[in-house]
Amino acid sequence: METILFLAHTEPDGSLAKAALEALGTALDLSRALSGAALVAGIVGGQVEAAAGRIAKCGAQRFLGVSGKAFSESRYASDAAAAEALCRASQATLVIAPATSRWSRSLAGVAQRLNGRIDTHAASVQIANGQPAVSRWYYRQRMEAVLQREERPWVILLDPGCHEPWSGEAGSAAVESIPVALAAERTTVTGFHSPSADQQTIRPDAKLLFVAGAGWTKKQPDGRVHIADAEKLILNFLRLARASLGSSKSLVDLSGEGQTVLPFLTHLNQVGQTGSTPRHPKGLSACCHGEEPHVVGWRFIDERRAINLDPNCGWARGKADVLYVADAFEVMAKVNKLLAERA
Ligand SMILES: Cc1cc2nc3c(=O)[nH]c(=O)nc-3n(C[C@H](O)[C@H](O)[C@H](O)COP(=O)(O)OP(=O)(O)OC[C@H]3O[C@@H](n4cnc5c(N)ncnc54)[C@H](O)[C@@H]3O)c2cc1C
């Protein structure tokens, strides 16, 4: 019989992130589907009571916590020690955790210490032949595989956006505190450097992904480039539509080649085979050709539209639901005007 450990860490304000509640939803489904399975919740953080209270009514049999100042911050040594202690205390055979940067960095090491196994980037956990099975994508979302393992404990890192977040009522939970003896700390967390909210263009929860392609920096029909106009149009649209900004590889590569570029784009914005595969209900691409290595990153965009001057661009070949054969500078100026009137 399996013992399922839902493993979470708190956010700086003591809450649980949406990704953690999604992982809890998966752990619950699994505990219901596997006969005789037990569900344990394990939380790591500076203080864990509020987070445990948030999920008090989820149906977990036990709530375990590792808390204290050393566990409020993301640090490999303390995160791995805390997760290992929770796995041992719960005697977990299956560990379901959200693929946050903290867990993605530390849980492979924990699986190794426990002589277990880990699978990352899981898109779902189901039951096949009465046993748990993880599905995940390979080769940049071109192939989906379903994996089963006999080794235990089996740690599964669940990608965000793959399950509805658990949304039950809060309550109060009796948290069993698990002691963790830490070796002398060699890593000191001094703080975070993050861009201001205005500069933050990657918004995973946005309803719309706006993808900018290299066409924004190319000579336009008047024989000139219009970088300043492109920058204004794109940033205005992001502000008005609260969209997330993606980019083609060609556009972000330009900066490395010393060409005039859009300064707010980095390789983190790149969508595609060698970039990211974001999840958004809608996507709008402008001035991007829609070649396969780029469009493969649109796997999880449900409704796709593109603006391109070229009626034979890649989007026209079944890759977009709607292609506007038009000048993106003109279209986006008009769209921004309409959005501003509505705001
Ligand atoms: C191994 C490998 C991995 C790769 N990985 C990725 C990846 O992860 N992501 C990625 O994006 N690419 C990737 N590529 C590159 C990819 O094949 C394309 O080269 C790249 O996506 C092209 O970028 P683009 O469409 O922005 O630029 P271009 O191909 O230069 O297209 C610009 C487009 O803008 C249009 N345009 C110009 N002006 C306007 C206007 N005023 N209005 C409307 N349209 C206009 C043009 O018609 C043109 O179609 C990869 C390639 C390889 C070989």
What is the CATH class of the largest domain?
Alpha Beta
Ligands bound to this protein structure: flavin-adenine dinucleotide
Give me the CATH fold name of the largest domain: Rossmann fold
Give the number of domains. 2
Put simply, the count of helices is: 8
Output mean pLDDT: 95
Contiguous low-pLDDT stretches (5 residues minimum) are none
Identify the overall geometry.
elongated
Describe the protein:
This protein is of the alpha/beta class and 343 residues long. The protein contains 8 helices and 14 strands. The strands form 2 sheets. Strands 7-6-5-8-4-1-2-3-9 form a 9-stranded mixed beta sheet, sandwiched between helices. The chain has a 5-stranded parallel beta sheet with strand order 11-10-12-13-14. α5 links the parallel β10 and β11. α3 packs across α4 and α5 runs parallel beside α8. The mean pLDDT is 95. The site of flavin-adenine dinucleotide has 30 residues, from α6, α7, β13 and α8.
Characterize this entry briefly.
With 343 residues, the protein is α/β, with parallel strands linked by helices. Helices cover 27% and strands 25% of the residues.
